């Protein structure tokens, strides 16, 4: 499987933070191939990037890599605070969500508020929350931070702009090759 990771790069000109993507792993069998044995790698990166902040064109290798973006890790759980007088629908939903038998559900609901088991996905927590409130339960979603996310300046860094093809950049390439002159004088 091919996987891509978002990373942060520091511009060599303005030292601003840019976001870029790199291939973390790829499968060579996914290359485009023809019967004449020619092939194209699945992803080719151009050797130049344009900083999204200052607009300067630089060699990709001159950007300082600062590592991948950390979006943090969280777990979610529902705190069940109360029930309407007829809790049968809530009990059925809890049995479907967690596989508990009726005895376990009754023992958990005997002492409200009660925390339900942790979930990794916010979407799953929101779906269960919506279903339980529809069935007459009063509950709230709680979040536990396992690993904090990067600071906002890293999370909100703009995307570096991929340069055009090298043939379109011929006029600017000489700035990356000191000692060589562009064209004949």
How is the topology of this model organized?
Blueprint: E1 3-10, E2 17-25, E3 32-33, E4 39-40, E5 48-50, E6 57-59, E7 64-68, E8 73-83, H1 88-98, H2 102-109, E9 114-115, H3 122-134, E10 137-147, H4 152-155, E11 161-162, H5 170-173
Antiparallel strand pairs: 1-2, 1-7, 3-4, 5-6, 5-11, 8-9, 8-10
Could you name the key traits of this structure?
single chain; 185 residues; alpha+beta; three-stranded antiparallel sheet; 11 strands
What does this structure look like?
This protein is of the alpha+beta class and 185 residues long. It is 22% helix and 31% strand. The protein has helices spanning 88-98, 102-109, 122-134, 152-155, 170-173, and strands at residues 3-10, 17-25, 32-33, 39-40, 48-50, 57-59, 64-68, 73-83, 114-115, 137-147, 161-162. Strands 2-1-7 form a 3-stranded antiparallel sheet, with no helix packed on it. A 3-stranded antiparallel sheet has the order 6-5-11, with no helix packed on it. A 3-stranded antiparallel sheet has the order 9-8-10, covered by helices on one side.
β-sheet strand percentage: 25-35%
Give the termini distance in whole angstroms: 51 Å
What overall form do the CA principal axes indicate? elongated
The count of strands amounts to 11
Order of strands across the biggest sheet? Answer: 2-1-7
Helical residue percent band: 10-25%
Radius of gyration: 27 Å
* Overall pLDDT score: 80
Supply the helix-strand structural class: alpha+beta
Uncertain runs are 177-185
* Major sheet details: 3 strands, antiparallel
Q: What count of helical segments does DSSP give?
A: 5
Order of helices and strands: EEEEEEEEHHEHEHEH
């Amino acid at each position: 499987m091919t996987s891509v990771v978002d990373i942060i790069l520091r511009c060599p000109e303005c030292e601003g933070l840019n976001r870029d993507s790199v291939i973390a792993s790829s499968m060579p069998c996914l290359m485009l191939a023809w019967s004449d044995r020619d092939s194209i790698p699945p992803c080719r990166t151009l050797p130049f990037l344009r900083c999204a902040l200052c607009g300067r064109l630089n060699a990709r290798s001159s950007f300082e890599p600062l590592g991948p973006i950390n979006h943090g890790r969280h777990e979610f759980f529902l705190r069940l605070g109360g029930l309407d007088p007829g809790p049968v629908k809530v009990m059925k939903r809890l049995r479907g969500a967690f596989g508990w038998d009726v005895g376990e559900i009754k023992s958990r609901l005997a002492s409200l508020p009660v925390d339900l088991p942790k979930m990794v996905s916010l979407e799953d927590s929101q779906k269960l929350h919506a279903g339980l409130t529809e069935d007459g339960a009063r509950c709230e979603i709680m979040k536990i931070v396992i690993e904090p996310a990067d600071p906002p300046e890293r999370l909100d860094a703009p995307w570096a702009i991929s340069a055009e093809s090298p043939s379109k950049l011929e006029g600017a390439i000489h700035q990356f090759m000191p000692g060589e002159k562009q064209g004949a004088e």
